[in-house]
Amino acid sequence: MDITTYWQQFKQSHPEVTTDEYEAFSLGAEDDLQQQDQLAKLVYDGIKTATTSAYDLYKQDETDPLPKFGEYGIILDGHHQPVCVTKTVVVETVPFLQVSAEHAYHEGEGSRTLEEWRKVHWDFFKREYQEENHEFNETLPCVCEVYEVVYR
Question: What's this model's pTM, rounded to 2 decimal places?
Fold first, then answer.
């Protein structure tokens, strides 16, 4: 199903939603379709209710804005198909080393421990920063977002 049709179906079942503003996106590495599928399933199943991104890597323009409280997102799988609609309920920016164990748990991946979260995200952010010719370090800001699934 295409993204626009999926959004319209969501709005028909939620008449209280009057906005047509949403972002459709996949979670995980751009070149790892299997990871995108896995993360989309975790969101769909209600296990993954949070995500973290590197603040510095957001393009501070209209094409890739920072997440905002109350905004809607359409989670896509690795084949760019809509899986569910989320609504952002918390956004905070903290240094990498200050991301909490609670946030790591709500990311819903692996053992859900802070130790594993730090290892996986360190490797991920390091690669992402290298692609932009920058160096990642533990004091750089991370955007921690918490959301809830509002439509499946």
Answer: 0.91
